[in-house]
Amino acid sequence: MTAMNVTPRGALPPGGSSPGAGAHSGAASGTTAGPVAEGPRPLVELNERSREIFRQIVESYLATGEPVGSRNLSRMLPLQLSPASIRNVMADLEQTGLIYAPHTSAGRLPTELGLRFFVDALLEIGDLTAADRANIESQVRAGTGSASLDGVLAQATTLLSGLSRGAGVVVTTKQNLRLKHIEFVRLDPGRALVVLVAEDGSGENRLLDLPQGLPASALTEATNFLNACIRGRTLGEVREEIDRRREEIARELDALTARLVEAGVAMSVGPAEERQLIVRGQANLLEDLRAAEDLERIRLLFADLETQKDVIDLLSRAEEGEGVRIYIGSENKLFSMSGSSMIAAPFRDGTQHIVGVVGVIGPTRLNYARIVPMVDYTARVVSRLLEGR
Fold first, then answer.
1. How far apart are CA 335 and CA 342, in angstroms?
2. Of 101, 255, 275, 323, which residue is least crowded by CB atoms under 10 Å?
3. Mean pLDDT of 313-336
4. DSSP tag of 13
5. DSSP class of residue 118?
């Protein structure tokens, strides 16, 4: 799978690498799937004429989802070229794997390899207008009325789904929340409830098996000890602190209480449960369907979104680098059947640690030039709000 960093101003850096062997060429919105590429193929250096024709084919597809023919291209191009000359260029572009014909005698569409080349080498991303920035800022800040971080993130996903007409998605790590309070509540002689309260007001409860013979006073001692060192730290940081102070704990607390302290912060749920996924605006994906294959594509995408672990894993990869990341169609196994794309950017907390990812999922003909800066700016706004918490 290929991902990229995007600089929201100006043209993207030139690229030319294919997404890899076995990647499906062809887009899925309003068309049948394109041919399957036999493997990576070096992209030729396109001259001005070829680049302009290729750009028009892609931009027409992104706008309409429909194939475009040589006659229509001759009217769209700023260059004075006959339909016959355009057909010759299209034949060359098809041979390189950048475009394909969905039907005999039809116009041409970009393959997924072509979309990747367009995004890497030809896409020009402008800046947001002052009105766009103000709109994003005000709508995301509307979520701060909730005491919980979830309110901000839910507002961000709703905003992006509305602006993009795709599905807005956010993934974040519960472990990264700054803690305010912890308490042990005995349920019965062998079990207790560990209550974790974060600084943003959100809470989490976990069941804990108690050591046999543990006195009631041990729960109070463990609660007091942890609350003395927990405020403002993440659960991971508290664990590191407990490890550093292991000898001190052994001196200050009896053995059973010390075990309880370690157990209270050592409890760890699985990776998929540590991360939470918020999705908004799936209904947007049902708009503008043109054919039965469109409906099938959306059905497959909905099935992908239901598989939360796979979506979380994919979004989490966007945490690995700076800037916006773009995943196109079958470059990722998750979207190999639905032919969808994702645009995502990481956001940070007050310590400048990446704590989650915000993004948009939709058809491969997303308006990349418009959505990329929106996702980027939304991630920046969320980061600024988290810095103030």
1. 9
2. 255
3. 81
4. P
5. I
Three-state DSSP at 27 gives: coil
Q: Is 361's pLDDT higher than 70?
A: yes
Cα-flanking dihedrals φ and ψ of residue 153, to 5°?
-70, -40
User: Among 69, 76, 72, 71, which Cα is nearest to 103's?
Assistant: 69
pLDDT of residue 201: 67
Q: What is the residue type of 269?
A: V
With 80 as the cut, is the pLDDT of residue 323 above it?
Answer: yes
- How many residues in total does the chain contain? 389
The whole-model pTM stands at: 0.67
Give the CA angle between residues 296, 298, 302 to the nearest 5°.
120
Which parts of 65-148 fold into alpha helices (H)?
70-76, 83-95, 112-117, 130-141
Measured at the CA of 263, the angle between CA 257 and CA 265, to 5 degrees, comes to 115
Q: Are strands 167-173 and 354-363 parallel, antiparallel or unpaired?
A: antiparallel
Nearest to 267 by CA among 183, 209, 186: 209
